[in-house]
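Re: that backbone. Tokens:
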């Protein structure tokens, strides 16, 4: 009787594990990534493509003056001093227009997939 019970528990565990693996949303196994964007010569460097929810961008100010990375929709606003860095974690899919409050020519677009 004991061996039958063990077999049933093992089969139930396997079925439960298989069901939970199937229930994961597509792309759930993908790990969040960190990207780096430099701010130099009064401009944002290239903004990476293929950004996903959960990824982070580390903004590195290589200039000798402060900059901001400000979203027009007010979802984030980083203030980054000279030779400092700041991080934005992307929490929502969409397209974000960004600019530097201090230097109007500094503009860009961040596109985040789901």
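Recovered sequence:
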């Amino acid at each position: 009787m004991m061996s039958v019970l063990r077999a049933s528990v093992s089969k139930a565990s396997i079925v439960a594990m298989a069901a939970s693996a199937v229930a994961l949303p597509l792309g759930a196994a993908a790990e969040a990534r960190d990207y780096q964007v430099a701010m130099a010569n009064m401009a944002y460097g290239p903004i990476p493509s293929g950004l996903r929810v959960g990824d982070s961008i580390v903004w590195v100010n290589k200039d000798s003056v402060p900059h901001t990375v400000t979203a027009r929709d007010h979802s984030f606003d980083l203030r980054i001093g000279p030779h400092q860095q700041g991080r934005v974690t992307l929490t929502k899919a969409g397209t974000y227009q960004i600019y530097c409050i201090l230097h109007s020519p500094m503009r860009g677009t961040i596109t985040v997939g789901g």
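Residues 34-113 form a domain with the Immunoglobulin-like fold (CATH 2.60.40.420). The mean pLDDT is 82.
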